[in-house]
């Protein structure tokens, strides 16, 4: 059954101020797992201790491309020590987006080394991989056509797919066999036409259809993320959990 986790970038300021206390609050809200975006100076032993205490699973870790390329053995060792076997490339800077074929070669090597170590390597998208084209297709589709499933899996950020003007459900269906993780978040348009991330159920994204499709595809985790919070991030993730519990109570096949 698909489980619900939290991308800790959402509560990054609280994590910096009180790492362990913030994780205890997240567990108390009902999130079963967390996706790391930094460790705020904690050792692997300290991270594993608080995960064991709270009963939460380390479902993945957003790891910068440079670290994956240049310090992969260290990242694998740290993450295995905390019980995590999924490393995720979260972003590619603008300075590298003109050399995609070189990036794909690096990613293929990273993916092979991860596979050899028993670790899953995923890519997390923003909108630019969908609005920028390569060989006549969106970059994201080219990436997944060139790199095999055994070396690259997908963490689909459905909100960024929506923001790019494409259909998140169609992308979930297209990559159902390579989709262990789905980022689950909502967005609303501002008066000036820009957008902001909001609590689940407070925006325009069809988050129910996304959850239904992700569950049908067999995704292991729906991962809540709110890039920027207008209010207290801990209050925001509590509000999102209220929507999730309502979804689960009305037939959503998730475990909360």
Structure overview:
This protein has 256 residues and is of the alpha/beta class. The chain has one domain (2-255): Alpha-Beta Barrel (TIM Barrel). The protein has twelve helices and 13 strands. The strands form three sheets. An eight-stranded parallel barrel has the order 1-2-3-4-5-8-9-12, surrounded by four helices. Strand 6 (133-134) and strand 7 (137-138) form a beta hairpin. The mean pLDDT is 97. GO terms for molecular function: isomerase activity. It comes from Paenibacillus apis. Keywords: Isomerase.
List the main descriptive attributes of the protein structure presented here.
single chain, 256 residues, alpha/beta, TIM Barrel, eight-stranded parallel beta barrel, two-stranded antiparallel ribbon, 12 helices, 45% helix, globular
The overall number of domains is 1
Radius of gyration: 17 Å
Shape summary: globular
Sheet of most strands = 8 strands, parallel, barrel
What's the CATH architecture name? Alpha-Beta Barrel
Low-confidence spans: pLDDT under 50, at least 5 residues? none
Q: Between the first and last Cα atoms, what is the distance in angstroms?
A: 10 Å
Arithmetic mean pLDDT:
97
Helix proportion: 40-55%
Strand order of the biggest β-sheet:
1-2-3-4-5-8-9-12
Keywords: Isomerase
GO molecular function: isomerase activity
Pfam families: AP_endonuc_2
InterPro entries: IolE/XylAMocC-like, Xyl_isomerase-like_sf, Xyl_isomerase-like_TIM-brl
């Amino acid at each position: 059954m698909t489980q619900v986790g939290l991308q800790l970038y959402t509560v990054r300021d609280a994590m910096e101020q009180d790492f362990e206390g913030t994780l205890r609050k997240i567990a108390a809200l009902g999130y079963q797992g967390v996706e790391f975006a930094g460790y705020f100076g904690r050792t692997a032993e300290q991270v594993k201790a608080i995960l064991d205490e709270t009963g939460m699973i380390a479902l993945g870790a957003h790891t910068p491309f440079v670290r994956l390329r240049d310090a992969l053995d260290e990242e694998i060792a740290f993450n295995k020590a905390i019980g995590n076997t999924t490393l995720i490339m979260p972003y590619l800077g603008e300075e590298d987006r003109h050399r995609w074929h070189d990036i794909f070669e690096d990613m293929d090597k990273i993916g092979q080394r991860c596979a050899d170590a028993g670790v899953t390597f995923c890519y997390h998208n923003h909108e630019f991989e969908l609005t920028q084209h390569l060989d006549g297709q969106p970059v994201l589709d080219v990436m997944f056509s060139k790199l095999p499933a055994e070396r690259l899996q997908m963490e689909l950020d459905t909100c960024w797919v929506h923001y790019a003007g494409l259909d998140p459900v169609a992308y979930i269906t297209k990559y159902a066999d390579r989709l262990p993780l789905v980022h689950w978040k909502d967005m609303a348009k501002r008066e000036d036409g820009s957008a902001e991330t909001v609590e689940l159920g407070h925006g325009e994204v069809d988050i129910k259809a996304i959850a239904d499709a992700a569950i049908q595809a067999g995704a292991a985790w729906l991962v809540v993320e709110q890039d920027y919070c207008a209010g207290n991030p801990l209050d925001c993730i509590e509000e999102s959990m209220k929507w999730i519990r309502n979804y689960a109570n009305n037939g959503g096949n998730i475990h909360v």
